[in-house]
Amino acid sequence: MLLIMTGGLPAGARQSCGPVNAGQVACMDGRLCRCGFEQGGSIAGRADGYRWDCGALRPDCAPAYSVPDPSGLSTRKPPIVVVPVVPMR
Fold first, then answer.
1. CA 23, 19, 15, 58 torsion-angle sign
2. Residues 21, 52, 47, 13: what is their CA dihedral angle, to the nearest 10 degrees?
3. CA dihedral 35, 1, 11, 56 (to 10 degrees)
4. What average pLDDT does the segment 63-75 reach?
5. Average pLDDT over residues 3-14
6. What is the DSSP string of 37-61?
7. Residues 12-41: pLDDT tens digits?
8. Which residues pair with residue 67 across a beta bridge?
9. C-alpha neighbours within 13 Å on the C-beta side of residue 67
């Protein structure tokens, strides 16, 4: 009841993962996570259940597009420095 009155979950809270939203993807901490059923085991020390998969093999989220700065200052890139390489004999 308190969460409803305060406006919901905090900004850093994760969405719930369960049978209702299995297969759903969400962007969490820059990673595209997928909700799915994972088997537990004695080695992992976890029970069977639905969890968010945000592992290293999951892709990053698409970059957020923004309106370019009209002054053009933020879109300029630093100059490229070319250093000649002399081969060793």
1. negative
2. -90
3. -20
4. 64
5. 43
6. EE--BTTTTB-SEEEEE--TTSPBP
7. 456 889 999 999 999 998 899 999 999 888
8. none
9. 2
